[in-house]
Amino acid sequence: MQVRLTQLDGSMPNLALMKLAHWHRSQGDTVTLTRHIEPDLFESKHYDKVYGSAIFGFSQMRLMRFQRIWPNAIIGGTGTAYNTTIEDLIGDEYEHYDYADYPEIDYSIGFTQRGCRLKCRFCVVPKKEGKPRSLNSINEIWRGDPHPKKLHIMDNDFFGNPEWKLRINEMREGKFKVCMSQGINTRLINDESAEALATINYQNTKFSKKQLYTAWDNLGDERGFFGGVDKLERAGIPPKHLMAYMLIGYDKNETWPRIWHRFNRMVERGIMPYPMVFDRARKDLTAFQRWVITGIYRHTPFEDYQCNLTA
Q1: Which of 42, 96, 102, 281 could lock onto 22 through a cystine, CB 3.0 to 4.6 A?
Q2: What's the CA gap between 163 and 133, in Å, rounded?
Q3: What pLDDT does 142 receive?
Q4: Smallest Cα–Cα separation from 107: which of 48, 68, 74, 153?
Q5: What is the C-alpha to C-alpha distance for residues 111 and 128, in angstroms, rounded to an integer?
Q6: 79-86: which pairs have CB atoms within 8 A and are 24 or more residues apart?
Q7: 256-269 and 222-235 helices cross at what angle (nearest 10)?
Q8: How far is residue 75's CA from residue 53's CA, in Å, rounded to a whole number?
Q9: Through-space distance between the first and last CA atoms of the chain, rounded to whole angstroms
Q10: What is the pTM of this model?
Q11: HEC profile for the chain?
Q12: What is the pLDDT at residue 120?
């Protein structure tokens, strides 16, 4: 068969499409993976199967265009209203990924567990994946020699894994550099897990510096969040090593003073905030997001930044 896989958003490799690419090529199919909605000039317009994957809700316009051009496409991803999952298509146990379409990627990517202990209203993981369960060992994720010992772990709840201690030992003993960009749940960190994290070589997404990712989405979680930050600091992980995703525009009771409170508390501790805008129609929130993630907040007040945008 001729198969088209379309990544509609996201800068990271799309694991569902990587898995589909591996599965189809193992069946002898010819696979084209692309980020383009429209066919390229020299691309065949006749495919036996077309897939589209979107992980962000703000990709709806791209998704609608994609559907108009490929009306028979199989669509999935957390950024869509479709319930189709990769497990529905090729089964629960298929854990093979094809890196051929992402030649710039030198790290190995995968999950040590699936599921989550929590049930956050804005998150689809508990509904889609259920309770936490162990999935892969570190050596099952690593591609092996001659690939670098660099791992991008995509777990949504690493310490929810009943076998997390084994995975930490494998990371440490194998001398892996490890990025956990989906974030660790600081509210649920205890002294044992904080000390375990301090023993591994945790890295940012570029594997260029020490960084851990976490989140503070709800003002009511302030005490638990900073309790976890304190535990990490006692274990030897300074707050400056933390990037915290900061959900804004979701809570109906959210006000600018509440947003500023979270932002200022993190900056005071040396934590790097990363605003995640739920309602992309809010131009004030998207401006705030850019002001923060570009680092402009360090030298320009937000009011001046907004004035420059509208000047």
Answers
A1: 96
A2: 9
A3: 96
A4: 153
A5: 15
A6: 79/8, 79/9, 79/54, 79/55, 80/54, 85/128, 86/16, 86/19, 86/20
A7: 10
A8: 6
A9: 54
A10: 0.86
A11: CEEEEEECCCCCCCHHHHHHHHHHHHCCCEEEEECCCCCCCCCCCCCCEEEEECCCHHHHHHHHHHHHHCCCCEEECCCCCCCCCHHHHHCCCCCCCCCCCCCCCCCEEECCEECCCCCCCCCCHHHHHCCCEECCCHHHHCCCCCCCCEEEECCCCHHHCCCHHHHHHHHHHCCCEEECCCCCCHHHCCHHHHHHHCCCEEECCCCCCCCEEEECCCHHHHHHHHHHHHHHHHHCCCHHHEEEEEEECCCCCCCHHHHHHHHHHHHHHCCEEEEEECCCCCHHHHHHHHHHHCCHHHCCCHHHHHHHHHC
A12: 64
**Tokens found for residue 266:** 């993190």
